[in-house]
Design a protein that fits this description.
The protein has helices at about 10-25, 35-55, 60-85, 90-115. The protein has about 120 residues and is mostly helical. The chain is elongated and about 45 Å long.
Amino acid sequence: MDRHQELPVWQVSRKLVAAIYRLTRELPPEEGYVLIPQLRRAAWSVSNNIAEGNAKLGRRELRRYLDSAIGSLAEINSMVSILPDLHAVDPKTCEDVDGLRRDTARQIYGLLRKPGR
């Protein structure tokens, strides 16, 4: 039932969620209404879509959920890449987030190319 927790891609996405939380704690309070919750939702969406897709029966369903996860990764990329233009955020934190985002995307694309299931 909890097979998703064994997937390396889910484990990296879990780290991405934690990194997003660290990043959003550095943002000013006025971002608490739009940017912070949107970034956090996108991060949760990645890990949740990996888990839910993995629980579904059939390759088509898995692909659909992984496609949604890729969309959420694009959202994260867009928001995080604009942050330095708007706020004095720690560049290392942004780099960490982007590295985890790229690693997650790479692993998702790997799963999509993998035959079977």
